Amino acid sequence: MATPLSDTSLSPLKTIAVVGLGTMGTGIAEVLAKAGREVIGIDVSESQAALAVAALESSTARAVQRGRLTEQERTDVLARVRTSGDLRAAADADLVIEVVPESYEIKHQVLRELDGIVRPETILATGTNALSVTRLAADSARPERVLGLHFFNPAPAMKLVEVVSSVLTAPQAVAAVTDLAVDLGKEPVAVGDRPGFLADGLLFGYLNQAAAMYEAKYASREDIDAAMRLGCGLPMGPLALLDLIGVDTARTVLDAMYAESRDRLHAPAPILKQLSEAGLTGRKSGRGFYTYDAPGSATVVRDALTPLEGAELTPGRQVRSVGVAGSGTMASGIAEVFAKAGYAVVLAARSEEKAQAAKARIGKSLARSVDKGRMSAEAAAETLDLITAAGSYDAFADVDLAVEAVAEDLEVKRQLFATLDKVCKPGAVLATTTSSLPVVACARATTRPQDVIGMHFFNPAPAMKLVEVVRTVLTSDDVHATVREVCVRIKKHAVDCGDRAGFIVNALLFPYLNNAIKMVQEHYASLDDIDAAMKLGGGYPMGPFELLDVVGLDVSLAIEKVLHREFRDPGLAPAPLLEHLVAAGCLGRKTGRGFREYARR
């Protein structure tokens, strides 16, 4: 029979045992010791315990060098940590945190042994990020005292801690551990018990899709990673992150997620199984998606898959002048980019008035750059002089490259490409900036589909470094080479991908955003908790709901519909909550209300 909880159990958690002294366990021990807790580090391996002590000595020495600790504080921190190879050393602990390998069998064994060792009121926390806390708690002698405490790696630096409750967990235990997390300087987020919890539940689906994208040879590993870093502002690309986490660990998490959700997006990509079974588990083994100079190293070295620098074999066409079609923010931003690079630019719209308004917008943007000291007034004036506003696409007669940035409507784009086909000279490259429509459909509206290619800029074009270069099956090699060369001149990072919905960035980003909406729809977590979790636990510059409101819920819905229509995967079906908000006219910041409400300007 479980011991009833008493008020005495709410005393501060002063002595804490950490079972498992790998990277995560060592990091947690450091965080606890720095916060004044007495720490008992337990590991069956004496060598692992010794490595943990050495790592703690090294990290605290660095903290002293950087002025974050005094020598006396360092001495005190180290004195608060003792290690043991015996679980019985946890007998006097107020809290035990297990971070042993992700295996039900191993975790069950540890928790069963702890049942016979610790005091009745001791809280038992599992550090799992993939296994069911409820299932682990159910076999305990005191399930009301078992919960999840999920730190993120590296524990000393990452602010997020997920506090995971099962249906058996006592509220007092949750409160005590939540208070501890706050005292540690962390940001605790309360979540329910489901595989991946909150942050990993969103993160691993995205990582899995990136692995599948690479496995399908749709894009190179370098291009996939660069696209997500530069297009979304992420600290790491998905394949590099899989190598850091461990390919085997990712496969375990995804297996658990798929077992519960049966969502194909969570079914581990076969390449994860192949790499795991070959022992190519990422940084820790020295090889995963990338090759490293030694096991445990972060330094990537060349291998057979590393692209040769400057290996463009086909010479491109000469580009001296550029036409930009459109009058919106994207069109003016692209025109500014080309003019800054020294190209003569024709900015054409459906009327002279619209074209002049777009040029005036560029003038204001350049003036802001001058005010911020990024360019001289003279350079700004010269840049603006390179841009000619025109009220007709006939002005594109002599351009070498025509880039359209009109409405994201296939029929509108097809009509424009039919016009460009008539007015542009032979040999001119015709590019679309579409983010979700088939480039080949634009190409087929012309008599020269071999000259058509996708150049997907990101908003705001002057600031964002990424351009997705999208070849169709009809695009000629020299057109592809031309656009790659132009990207170098305009100082953009080009990534190559094929002509399918979402290209790289949107194909990986929008299913993640859709899954975040489903979490709210299912009342699993709040908007604020999800946004905080992804910023603090994943290093995202914006939470998913902040981003959705900025992008526009109508734009997001349109892209998700395109992805669902192309890939026919039920998991890609837009969340009904998103459809309801769009139907209600709640489109995000631009309407003053989306997932959140905004003050009207």
TrEMBL record:
<dbReference type="Pfam" id="PF00725">
    <property type="entry name" value="3HCDH"/>
</dbReference>
<feature type="domain" description="3-hydroxyacyl-CoA dehydrogenase C-terminal">
    <location>
        <begin position="196"/>
        <end position="292"/>
    </location>
</feature>
<dbReference type="Pfam" id="PF02737">
    <property type="entry name" value="3HCDH_N"/>
</dbReference>
<feature type="domain" description="3-hydroxyacyl-CoA dehydrogenase NAD binding">
    <location>
        <begin position="15"/>
        <end position="193"/>
    </location>
</feature>
<keyword id="KW-0560">Oxidoreductase</keyword>
<dbReference type="InterPro" id="IPR013328">
    <property type="entry name" value="6PGD_dom2"/>
</dbReference>
<feature type="domain" description="3-hydroxyacyl-CoA dehydrogenase NAD binding">
    <location>
        <begin position="322"/>
        <end position="499"/>
    </location>
</feature>
<comment type="pathway">
    <text>Lipid metabolism; butanoate metabolism.</text>
</comment>
<dbReference type="GO" id="GO:0006635">
    <property type="term" value="P:fatty acid beta-oxidation"/>
</dbReference>
<dbReference type="GO" id="GO:0008691">
    <property type="term" value="F:3-hydroxybutyryl-CoA dehydrogenase activity"/>
</dbReference>
<feature type="domain" description="3-hydroxyacyl-CoA dehydrogenase C-terminal">
    <location>
        <begin position="502"/>
        <end position="598"/>
    </location>
</feature>
<protein>
    <submittedName>
        <fullName>3-hydroxyacyl-CoA dehydrogenase family protein</fullName>
    </submittedName>
</protein>
<dbReference type="GO" id="GO:0070403">
    <property type="term" value="F:NAD+ binding"/>
</dbReference>
<dbReference type="InterPro" id="IPR006176">
    <property type="entry name" value="3-OHacyl-CoA_DH_NAD-bd"/>
</dbReference>
<dbReference type="InterPro" id="IPR008927">
    <property type="entry name" value="6-PGluconate_DH-like_C_sf"/>
</dbReference>
<comment type="similarity">
    <text>Belongs to the 3-hydroxyacyl-CoA dehydrogenase family.</text>
</comment>
<dbReference type="InterPro" id="IPR036291">
    <property type="entry name" value="NAD(P)-bd_dom_sf"/>
</dbReference>
<dbReference type="InterPro" id="IPR006108">
    <property type="entry name" value="3HC_DH_C"/>
</dbReference>
